[in-house]
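PROTEIN DESIGN WORKSHEET
SECTION A - STRUCTURE
LENGTH: 320
TOKENS:
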């Protein structure tokens, strides 16, 4: 359901004094999309600011132009508009954005399902592999030839969200977009940084989760929990939590993996699946959202209460 890009293109070509934001715990798609939009539509001349509240994961620091990203407390413009990329609404951007929404134009580009915030205009394509794939199509339709800095960021976003063209979200359009970007991209650099470069804390947390993971439902469900104390023991910050849940899917025969992360005041539940098991429905029933094979939710309450509740809900999927 490709939406009409004309309104988005007119907005990006003409809007001044805009904040571009992604989601908390930023990933390659969110950061790549932000940087690509900024450079393709000449954000510098229009006084745009790229804002992310969290620390950027070390392995994503290769993305060209990343030094432009600022923290919310460093916003130094009279904000007239906001562009949300790869996540819609304050529960994804972080609540720092709240004071900047009232009375401003808000546009969104996203590929996550769920009836979240839409703003004045939303380009939503749940069938797109990555927000960067949608951004690439918008840039193309705007008649802009992507410079290498734009190509590297878009390609990185697509590669990150498809796990290097391995996930089921890899479509012909996604491969076509990537093919057009490829001549301007250092593909080895992208692969090494996205898949072969972890922080020590991240790697140790993966080891911890692989050691403590539990199987249920005759080996179809696998889960692990990361308690706050464990994160502290390994010196891990929020930037060290990426990609751990994918290991929950790896034991032979597992169809659904769940990782519980204990944060201040809430539990983040990360859900992954394969073989057609739909975790998006489960995520929605928990107040979250995402994609069919990769979703998540944030639930208030202690780990000891949230974990059994979610595991029981997951078990029901396999009981049918
Ligand atoms: Mn994405």
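SECTION B - SEQUENCE
RESIDUE ASSIGNMENT:
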């Amino acid at each position: 359901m490709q939406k009409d890009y004309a309104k988005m293109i007119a907005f990006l070509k003409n809007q001044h004094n805009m904040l571009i934001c992604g989601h908390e715990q930023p990933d390659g798609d969110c950061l790549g999309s932000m940087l690509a939009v900024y450079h393709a539509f000449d954000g510098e001349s229009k006084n745009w600011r790229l804002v992310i509240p969290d620390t950027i994961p070390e392995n994503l620091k290769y993305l060209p132009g990343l030094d432009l990203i600022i923290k919310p407390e460093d916003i130094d413009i009279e904000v007239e508009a906001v562009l949300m990329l790869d996540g819609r609404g304050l529960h994804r951007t972080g609540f720092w954005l709240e004071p900047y929404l009232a009375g401003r134009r808000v546009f969104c580009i996203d590929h996550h399902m769920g009836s979240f915030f839409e703003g004045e205009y939303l380009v939503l394509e749940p069938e797109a592999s990555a927000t960067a794939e949608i951004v690439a199509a918008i840039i193309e339709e705007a008649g802009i030839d992507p410079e290498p800095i734009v190509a590297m960021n878009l390609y990185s976003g697509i590669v990150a969200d498809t796990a290097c063209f391995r996930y089921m979200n890899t479509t012909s359009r996604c491969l076509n977009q990537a093919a057009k970007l490829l001549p301007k991209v250092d593909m080895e650099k992208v692969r090494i940084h996205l898949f072969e470069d972890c922080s020590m804390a991240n790697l140790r947390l993966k080891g911890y989760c692989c050691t403590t993971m539990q199987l249920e439902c005759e080996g179809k469900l696998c889960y692990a929990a990361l308690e706050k104390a464990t994160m502290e023991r390994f010196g891990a910050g929020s930037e060290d939590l990426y990609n751990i849940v994918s290991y929950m899917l790896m034991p032979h025969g597992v169809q659904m993996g769940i990782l519980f992360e204990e944060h201040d005041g809430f539990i983040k539940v990360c859900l992954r699946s394969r073989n057609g098991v739909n975790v998006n429905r489960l995520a929605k029933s928990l107040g979250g959202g995402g994609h069919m094979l990769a979703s998540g939710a944030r639930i208030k309450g202690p780990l000891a209460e949230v974990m059994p509740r979610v595991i029981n809900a997951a078990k029901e999927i396999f009981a049918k």
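SECTION C - NOTES
The domain at 6-196 is CATH 3.90.1640.10 (inorganic pyrophosphatase (n-terminal core)).
The first strand starts at residue 18 and ends at 21.
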